[in-house]
Structure formats: C-alpha cells, structure tokens
Amino acid sequence: MSEEPQAEEFDTVAAWTADAVEELGADHALPAACRGSGSPAALEWLADRMGLAPGMRLLDSGAGVGGPARLVQGTHGVEPTLVDPMEGACRAAERLFGLRTLVGDGAALPVNSGGYDAGWSLGVLCTVEDKVAQVAELRRVVADGGAVGFLVFVRTVEELTDPPEGNHFITAEELDELVREAGLEVVDRAWLGDFDSPPQDWQDAADAVDDVVRRDHGDSESFQEAQRNQDRMIRLLRDGSVAGRLVACRVPGRRAGRDT
Ligand SMILES: C[S@@+](CC[C@H](N)C(=O)[O-])C[C@H]1O[C@@H](n2cnc3c(N)ncnc32)[C@H](O)[C@@H]1O
Description:
A 7-stranded mixed sheet has the order 3-2-1-4-5-7-6, with helices on both faces. Helix 1 packs parallel to helix 5 (about 85-95) and helix 1 (about 5-25) packs across helix 8 (about 200-215). The chain has helices at about 5-25, 30-35, 40-50, 65-75, 85-95, 130-140, 170-180, 200-215, 220-240, and strands at about 55-60, 80-85, 100-105, 115-120, 140-155, 185-190, 240-250. The protein is of the alpha/beta class. Strand 4, helix 6 (about 130-140) and strand 5 (about 140-155) form a beta-alpha-beta unit. The radius of gyration is 17 Å and the shape is globular. It contains 9 helices and 7 strands. Helix content is about 45%, strand content about 20%. The chain has one domain (about 5-250): Vaccinia Virus protein VP39 (Rossmann fold, 3-Layer(aba) Sandwich), CATH 3.40.50.150. The structure holds S-adenosylmethionine (SAM). S-adenosylmethionine binds next to helix 4.
C-alpha cells in the first residue's frame, strides 16, 4: 500500500492547519491539533492512569501537530518532547505551541535510553508496519518505574472493507500481546468510545479550521487525497469495525527518588 496519502495527511495538511489557526486565533489551536486522538476526556484519563505529574519529562512519539502534548502540559504540568518523522508536523507544533520537537522515527527515537519519566504514542501504531520496534523504543527511552501509554485504533472484525491506505490495524488482543512482549506491565485499558465527546465549542473550532483549510487548498490533489483517507477512517469508526483502544502501562522496576 502506498504511504503517500499519509505523507499528505500528516505533513502538508499539518502546515495548512497551523496557517489556518494563525488566521482564526490561538483558541483554535488545541482542538485543531488534537484531531488524531479523540477527546480531551480520554487523553486526561490516560494521563491520570499513567500518573503524569508536574515536572515529569514526557516523550510523545508520533506527536503530529502536538495537541495532546500541549493539553497535558496544561492539565498535568509535564515537560513534553515531541518526535515525528514529518517535518511539517514538527514545524506546526513549534509554531502553534512553542513545543520542543525532533524530526525522527518512532522506531529509532533520537534520544537517550532512560531519559524520560513517561512516553506515549497516540494514533500512531496503526499507521506503521513495524509496531514491535515502536513499542520497544518507547520502552527503551522511559526510565525504570516510568509510564508508557498508547492510543491505538484496532480492528474489531476479521476483515476491513476499504480501509485507509497505509494503515495496518491489529486487534485489541494483539495489542495486549505486543505490550507484554515488550516487557511492559498493563495498568489499565479503556475504549475511546466510552468517553464523552469533546464539547461543542471544541468541535466548532476544529470545524472552523477545517473550513479555512478547505477554502485555501480544497482544489489540490494533496487535500483531496488526505480527505479520502480521513473519510475512510471515519466510516470504519462509525460502523464499529475499528475502535480506539487506550492502554496505560508501566515499565517494571523502581525509579531512584520516586516511590513506584
Ligand atoms: C493520526 S496521527 C496522530 C498524531 C498525534 N499523536 C495525535 O494524537 O494527534 C499519526 C502520526 O504518526 C506519525 N508517524 C507516521 N509514521 C511514524 C513513525 N514511523 N514513527 C513515528 N511517528 C510516525 C505521523 O507523522 C502522524 O503525525
């Protein structure tokens, strides 16, 4: 399957999103930049179950435009570092939120082993083939006793009809196995669909950003490709053949100076 539609969705559209937010105002930034991860309620649940707290260093692997990292910087006081292979996404996260970003692959994170208190990967594993390497890398960069979190879009049926190009969905059981094989201990799990949807003003702000992007780029092949891919994903989520799975994990061991 071609990776091209995802490059459009995650790179080019990220830059357009930042442009649109600059036109509409900073209050549009968070809703527009959290599109990949669902609701703030689900992200806060995951942050709570991971035990995120002020001053903790959080590595966000496949951070996109940085909405989730910025959200938990505000709610839980963490110090995030964002990694994403798409330069456009990293630049957008810097422009929108002034966050620290590194261009890099989640399967070879450009940071030292054990240098973070926590790490997460949100909406990324279903977009990559080598999931084992992605999970192993998060495990590597988080110190003993630290926390690792995932939001993974999993398939609930044997075969998906017309899935988005470039996606590789596993089941919730396979996700559990993946996490266990990486040596992580599961603390808690949840389904994204069980959390409240974002409030209406949040949705309205995200839609307004979409409208500006469509106004300025709707005729381009890049926009249309990204839109087709997004529409396929929305259809699978609506018919229930794909669902968001949240998993909070812990790296075994004790952390110096922390009660684990
Ligand atoms: C659906 S978006 C989610 C973005 C963000 N985590 C969020 O929840 O809003 C998937 C992200 O995974 C990134 N990605 C794709 N391949 C990757 C890889 N090999 N390593 C790390 N991230 C990757 C994409 O560039 C994109 O930003």
